[in-house]
Each structure stands twice: as structure tokens, then as C-alpha cells.
Write a structure and sequence with these properties.
- Helix content is 12%, strand content 53%.
- It has 7 helices and 27 strands.
């Protein structure tokens, strides 16, 4: 028996067997249903699975039905394979493996294959219970392991019907140098990060993923969370909640991204405004929102920012950081940040308010000034990074501090009184009452006046 590959898959055979017996529901096919076999017994089976980078595969009968939640119900009730071989070239997952395939009534299903994941050597191992006189939707336990230097993934779970990967529940653990390698398997539109060690309880329903529980570590950041990832109209729609016991912003960039940032800083020196990239041109077909909370922020150097929470909303090429609330060393920052890249260059809008704290604490200068303050920053600019966009921004920024104290020396300097400044510098530098200090800037093309 030989079934050829589709022409787009590169020729050769999709399935070949020295001997093949199968039972198929012909009447279901006549009435428009699937004629996937319910029982299979094969000798010398050779199966060649192929998927292109655009997602087109030779094993998914629903791949061309846009908007449909693809995947089939369980239907296989018996499987016996001797002297089997299987190969898979999945260009979308960057995975190519080949190896042995066996299924019998005693040992069950076993796949042992080797190949490459990206350019790294990899092994794939799958084991399942015997498939013999099994109900078409009976619980089917299985285990899976994909091992390489780029991804160490293990999973144990149950399918609703034998080999029905469209409907399964499993417990997974993934370790990798970056979250992007796990995304090759889950195809959720995730990004490059520092090394991950994550455990999750996951359900797969058709093309959708439900992460019921997630815990683990990304770099120095420890997290718990849950999420749903729905495939609709060729887009991924995410809804999730993530909480970090501790969080380091640098963990959201892989080594390559961090190296670029370090090289730039070495070239031009440290800067106050971050060079965080806000160009969304490479963001995939992903929408949704993630509510996040970081109880403790980690920085290389001491920072006035101590905690952060808000909602990340992605709608095509528009990213919004909404309901922002950052805990400061004293006080808080609230507001909203928007990046709009639906046309032209990325447009950044920063609207942030500061208050409920001491200006001296915010500036790490409590010995010079101690006064309650309020401040607001409302700036708009265009650029590929936050630094570039704010460097060309228009808008306004202002600060008011009142009913506090200030160093006599600082007060003299701010008052531009040279005589008092020299006197304060020579004499005892005591504080004086600060009734009110206000400063306001108008911004035009990156110049604050």
C-alpha cells in the first residue's frame, strides 16, 4: 500500500506499508463526515509527516477551513503496528526527526525518534497505553519527552480517544534558554526571554490552549498565572493573569537582545531614558490582554520603583499598558502608556501621574528636600524606542511640592541668589520651610522649556 505526498510536500510517499488492514466508516463519508479509520493493523509501516512554515500540513484535514476550530474527535479504537517507521519535518516548529514506531497489545504505543530542533540535536519519545478494543472517546494516557539543548519538554496526560491530540489534558514542564523555544511548540506568539523553568497544567481543545495553572521562573523572575489562547480567524487571542513574586525587566529580553543594549550603552554611555524597543512590526497575529502584578521589582542598582501592576492590551499593532499602578519608595505612580504602530512609525503616548509621596525620597535626596509632591507627565512622540520617541516628543510635564522643608543651600541655588548660596555653603547648612515649589515644562520636538 502506498499513498503519495501532496505535491506541495515535496513528493515521495505520505504512507507506505508492506501490509495494511483498516476498518473505515464508509457511510459517514457518504454523509459528509470523516472516514478516518477506527482500526488499523500494519506491517512495515512508513509514515512521513510534513508541515510547512506557513502551517500547511499533510495530517490536518481542517487546515484550510479558516475560522474553524480544527481538530478531530477521537475515533481510533484499535492499533497494531510492527516494523514501523515515522518521520516528521515540521518547518513551523523547526523540528525534524525520524525513528521507530511500534504499537501492540502488550507494550502499547512507542515512538523513539532523533533529529534536530533548530540546529541542535534532539530526541523525541512518545509512549501510550495499548490501543485495543478501546472506546472511540475513552481516556487514553500517554507520556511525551522532547530533549535538546534548546528545549527540555516533558508531558504526561490523557487524550479523549487514542491519539486525539486535538482534545487532551496534560501536566507539562519546560526548560529552555528562552521562552521563544517553548513557543515553537505551543505557537502562542511568545517572545525571547532569559532562561525558563516552567510547570503548567494545560488543556488542548481543537486549536485552543487553556493554561489552567502556571508556575516557575524566567531568569530571576518567579511567577504564577493562568491563561487562555484561542485561535480564531488565523489570529491568536490571549487572556491571562500573571503574578510575579519578584520581577526583573531584563528577564524579558534574551541574550541577543541584552547584548545589543549593552553594546549601545558602551558606545554612548548610560542614559536616563530607556532604549526599550517599541516597534511592533514583527508582532504576529496576536490580540488580547494580560493582567499582571509584580510584588517586588529587581534592578541592578537601587531604584525608587518597588512594585508594579496593570493590564497589557494588544490589539493588532496597538499596545496599551492600562491601569498602571507603580509603588514607589514612597508614594505611587499611576497612568497609561500607549504604542500605536498601525500606520507610519510607532507613536508613543505617555500619561503618568505621581503623588502620595515625598519629593526627597523620589530623588533619593531626603537630606536636601522633604516635601509632599504631585507631578504629571503627558508626552507624545514617534520613534522605534522609548528614548527616540521621547527625544522628539511634544506635550507637557509639571511638578508641585508644598508644605515641606528644603536645604538653605539648595533654596539659594534655586533662587539664583549668589550671595546667599556662598553664605550657605560657608555656614551651617540648615533647612528652611518650603511653602511651595512649582515647575512646569512645555515640550516641543523633544525640547522642554
Amino acid at each position: 500500500v502506498r499513498i503519495a505526498q501532496p505535491a506541495w510536500a515535496g513528493g515521495g510517499h505520505w504512507l507506505k506499508a508492506a501490509e495494511l488492514q483498516a476498518q473505515v466508516p464508509l457511510w459517514r463519508g457518504v454523509t459528509g463526515g470523516s472516514i478516518a479509520p477506527s482500526t488499523i493493523e500494519a506491517r512495515g509501516l512508513d509514515l512521513a509527516l510534513v508541515r510547512q512554515a506557513n502551517g500547511r500540513s499533510n495530517w490536518d484535514p481542517h487546515q484550510d477551513r479558516k475560522g474553524k476550530n480544527g481538530g478531530s474527535r477521537g475515533g481510533l479504537t484499535s492499533l497494531i503496528i510492527s516494523n514501523g517507521h515515522v518521520s516528521m519535518r515540521d518547518d513551523k516548529r523547526h523540528l525534524t526527526v525520524s525513528g521507530t514506531l511500534r504499537a501492540d497489545a502488550r507494550s502499547g504505543l512507542l515512538i523513539e525518534a532523533a533529529g534536530k530542533f533548530h540546529d541542535a540535536p534532539a530526541t523525541l519519545w512518545v509512549q501510550g497505553a495499548p490501543i485495543l478494543s478501546l472506546g472511540s472517546e475513552s481516556p487514553y494516557p500517554f507520556s511525551l519527552a522532547l530533549k535538546s539543548s534548546l528545549l527540555d519538554l516533558t508531558a504526561n496526560g490523557t487524550m479523549e480517544g487514542a491519539l486525539n491530540i486535538a482534545r487532551m489534558s496534560l501536566i507539562m514542564r519546560a526548560r529552555a534558554p528562552s521562552l521563544s523555544y517553548l513557543d515553537d511548540v505551543m505557537e502562542a506568539g511568545l517572545f525571547g526571554t532569559q532562561p525558563i523553568d516552567l510547570t503548567g497544567e494545560v488543556r488542548h481543545r481543537g486549536r485552543d490552549w487553556f493554561i489552567d495553572r502556571l508556575s516557575g521562573r524566567i531568569g530571576r523572575s518567579t511567577l504564577t498565572g493562568k491563561a487562555t489562547l484561542l485561535k480564531r480567524d488565523e489570529r491568536t487571542k490571549i487572556d491571562g493573569d500573571v503574578r510575579f513574586a519578584q520581577f526583573d525587566f531584563d528577564d524579558l529580553a534574551d541574550d541577543q537582545g541584552q547584548a545589543k543594549g549593552q553594546a549601545l550603552e558602551a558606545q554612548i554611555g548610560p542614559r536616563v531614558l530607556p532604549d526599550t524597543r517599541i516597534n511592533l512590526a514583527k508582532v504576529g497575529p496576536t490580540d488580547g490582554q494580560i493582567r499582571f502584578r509584580a510584588d517586588q521589582l529587581l534592578f541592578e542598582n537601587d531604584s525608587a520603583f518597588k512594585s508594579l501592576q496593570g493590564t497589557i492590551i494588544l490589539d493588532g499593532k496597538q499596545l496599551t499598558l492600562d491601569k498602571v499602578r507603580a509603588g514607589l519608595r514612597q508614594g505611587e505612580m499611576t497612568g497609561r502608556v500607549t504604542v500605536d504602530h498601525r500606520s507610519g512609525r510607532p507613536k508613543l503616548h505617555l500619561d503618568l501621574t505621581f503623588g502620595n509621596g515625598s519629593l526627597g525620597t523620589l530623588l533619593n535626596a531626603t537630606d536636601l528636600i522633604d516635601a509632599p509632591f504631585r507631578a504629571r507627565i503627558d508626552l507624545r512622540g514617534q520613534g522605534d524606542t522609548i528614548r527616540e520617541a521621547l527625544g522628539k516628543s511634544d506635550g507637557r510635564a509639571g511638578l508641585v511640592a508644598e508644605n515641606g522643608t528644603i536645604s538653605k543651600l539648595v533654596a539659594s541655588v534655586l533662587g539664583q541668589d549668589l550671595g546667599k548660596t556662598i553664605g550657605s555653603a560657608i555656614g551651617s547648612d540648615k533647612t528652611v520651610g518650603l511653602r511651595c515649589a512649582a515647575i512646569g515644562f512645555g515640550a516641543r520636538s523633544g525640547l522642554l522649556t
